[in-house]
Backbone:
């Protein structure tokens, strides 16, 4: 999901965890202990029982991003599953602060969201916060963030959503859908709560203090549009929890159902960080990276391998700390293939050079196809706009 990034990057809310690591909506530092992070945030872990319930609803299928524990925690996911079981309506919601640097990590929650849409045939609301990007980031004009919103939407459409299920909201164009809800949300949030949660100070512009109400408003929009209680499920990375904790806190006082969330770990940086970083372009694979650039980044990636081929054959590598393995795991839905990479690495039967080449081929095929589908989406983008479907 989009990150509401405060220009000063101050961080009073969220979760700072001593010396070892820090996770906030704006930054991830250090080696993340995901179990401890879930405890600190007060979110639930996805249990075997949750997975069984999900399986029962999908005819035995569970998406590999959940199966492999990449999505691992939640707030209220169980309630959504129970609701699905009893035939109640619900919807999906996530979004993005539009920018020109869309990378593979941004697509991962959308891939899972696509699976939910396909399995449950539910509506999906996607918010592009061109207002937020303009308000909190220096160097962007509103025209530019609006243009980027439509550009980023192409990648979403390229994943195969159909216009009867995906409804795209571009904040500055579609504010009429959100404003009445946002005003109600804003009245429930004190300035001190917003400053505390989002790290704002007296030097921020006043738009930055109102913006969280726009983001929370989408969580309540389906209930208004469908004239009946329609909670949303929000698949996103765990660093976005402070937003939706706030949304859940105020929902019932506004007679809306609490939004539920499904939280992922972070896609690691190729250069060894726990999360890809915009400040280090070599840590991420961007959708506009050509084959040469993708190959260069992957071949230079940090690995869990041994210093020499001979040692690798003798001792094996460590896929558990290896971003190359994690990319294989997140981009392949074939369990046997992923297991073989893991076991061959451990057993010294796979060298890092070969493994990186396999990843390069996987990523190159994915990105070339993705770019082609983005081109085709250009003619269709208006069909996905919320204003075309909901008057
Ligand atoms: Fe990583 Fe592959 Fe090398 Fe194993 S063989 S350490 S998974 S790059």
Residues:
């Amino acid at each position: 999901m989009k990150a509401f990034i405060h220009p000063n990057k101050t961080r009073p809310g969220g979760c700072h965890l001593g010396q070892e690591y820090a996770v906030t909506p704006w930054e991830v530092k250090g080696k993340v202990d995901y179990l401890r992070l879930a405890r600190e945030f007060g979110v639930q872990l996805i249990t075997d029982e949750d997975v069984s319930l999900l399986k029962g609803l999908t005819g035995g299928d569970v998406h590999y991003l959940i199966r492999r524990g990449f999505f691992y925690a939640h707030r209220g996911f169980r309630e959504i599953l129970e609701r699905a079981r009893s035939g109640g309506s619900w919807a999906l919601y996530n979004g993005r602060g539009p920018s020109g640097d869309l990378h593979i990590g941004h697509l991962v929650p959308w891939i899972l969201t696509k699976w939910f849409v396909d399995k449950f045939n539910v509506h999906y609301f996607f918010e592009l916060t061109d207002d937020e990007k303009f308000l909190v980031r220096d160097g962007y004009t509103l025209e530019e963030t609006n243009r980027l919103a439509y550009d980023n939407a192409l990648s979403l459409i390229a994943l195969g959503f159909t216009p009867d299920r995906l409804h795209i909201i571009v904040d500055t164009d579609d504010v009429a859908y959100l404003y009445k809800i946002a005003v109600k949300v804003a009245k429930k949030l004190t300035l001190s709560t917003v400053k505390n949660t989002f790290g704002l100070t007296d030097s921020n512009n006043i738009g930055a203090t109102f913006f969280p109400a726009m983001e929370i408003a989408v969580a309540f929009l389906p209930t208004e549009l469908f004239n009946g209680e329609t909670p949303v499920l929000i698949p996103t990375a765990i660093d976005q929890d402070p937003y939706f904790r706030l949304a859940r806190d105020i929902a019932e006082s506004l007679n809306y159902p609490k939004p539920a969330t499904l939280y992922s770990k972070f896609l690691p940086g190729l250069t060894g960080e726990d999360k890809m970083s915009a400040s280090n372009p070599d840590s991420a694979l961007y959708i506009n990276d050509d084959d040469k650039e993708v190959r260069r980044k992957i071949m230079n990636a940090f690995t869990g391998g041994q210093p020499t081929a001979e040692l690798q054959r003798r001792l094996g590598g460590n896929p558990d700390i290896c971003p190359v393995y994690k990319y294989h795991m997140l981009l392949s839905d074939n369990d046997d293939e992923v297991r073989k990479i893991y076991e061959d690495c451990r057993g010294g039967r796979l060298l890092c050079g070969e493994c990186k080449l396999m990843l390069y081929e996987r990523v190159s095929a994915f990105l070339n196809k993705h770019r082609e589908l983005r081109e085709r989406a250009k003619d269709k983008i208006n069909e996905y706009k919320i204003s075309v479907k909901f008057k």
User: Anything to note?
Assistant: The first helix runs from residue 34 to 41. The longest strand covers residues 91-96.
